[in-house]
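Page 47, continued from p. 46.
Same chain as before, 57 aa.
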Amino acid sequence: MRSTNKEMMNYNVSQPEFGVDYHDFIQKEQCLSNMELAEEFGLSLKSIKIMKQKMKR
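Result:
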């Protein structure tokens, strides 16, 4: 069964996202591009976009 981004966000609310430190992510998000963030944290571009969507809410 496929799930949408919203369903994934609701399911993973209590778990830390991808094992990434949020404070470190916020600091680096301001000065790095999505591709650089993905390389820095060892994640895919889709994962970075999902994290940014979560941070905006």
